[in-house]
Specification:
The chain is α/β, with parallel strands linked by helices. Helices cover 40% and strands 14% of the residues. It is built from 7 helices and 7 strands. The strands form 2 sheets. The protein has a 5-stranded mixed β-sheet. A two-stranded antiparallel ribbon has the order 1-2. Strand 1 and strand 2 form a beta hairpin. Helix 1 crosses helix 2. Bound molecules: zinc ion.
Length: 199
């Protein structure tokens, strides 16, 4: 029977995605066997992300200043916006080193059954950006599953009258899949071969 403190730590690890009771227990005992310094560093890293990380005022990407390093990079093409569901999708697309435009983070995907309607997503600021900046192309890079496709179609319809090119990543990323689980070469190709959405 674990002690009260161990039990508490197991419970916390158990809240993490993909961490079951067994792994949570293993992690808790691992922490117990680590040096005080290592544990302190770990605890401080946890607190630091909550204290220091905020959202970019322009695109919604995570950063530690008012605007992220992508939005403040003048060498990038600010006329192309790639729309993604989450901040972590940016990291995946950036790994291809191919895309030189900027991004917009929706902060989720449409999922009406679970109460996620357009109002819950970062859509208003996207429309404002399009109205303000001289945007040439919007790349919809939502995940290739039902919610992601629904979100992309919703946005394509919404932006239909702006007179800008609206594209989406080419297939290659398996349907029902996730950007997260696709390799860099596949994503790179999907970006290169992106197709225009006609509505
Ligand atoms: Zn940004």
């Amino acid at each position: 029977m674990p002690t009260k403190s161990l039990e508490r730590l197991i419970l916390e690890f158990n809240k993490l995605p993909g961490v079951g009771q067994k792994s949570a227990t293993r992690y808790a005992f691992h922490i117990l066997n680590q040096s005080e310094e290592d544990v302190k560093n770990f605890a401080e890293a946890l607190l630091a992300v909550k204290e220091k990380v905020k959202k970019c005022q322009i695109c919604g990407n995570y950063c530690e200043s008012d605007t992220c390093n992508i939005c403040s990079d003048n060498a990038r093409n600010h006329n192309i916006i790639c729309v993604v569901e989450e901040s972590k999708d940016i990291m995946i697309l950036e790994k291809t080193t191919k895309y030189r435009g900027v991004y917009h983070v929706l902060n989720g995907r449409l999922d009406p059954l679970n109460g996620i309607t357009p109002n819950e997503l970062n859509i208003k600021s996207l429309i404002e950006r399009i109205g303000k900046d001289d945007i040439e192309e919007i790349i919809l890079a939502t995940n290739p599953n039902i919610e992601g496709e629904t979100t992309a179609m919703y946005l394509a319809k919404l932006m239909k009258n702006f007179g800008i090119k609206i594209t989406k990543l080419a297939s290659g990323i398996p349907m029902g899949g996730n950007l997260e689980f696709s390799d860099t070469a596949t994503i790179s190709r999907a970006l290169d071969d992106r197709i225009e959405i006609e509505i």
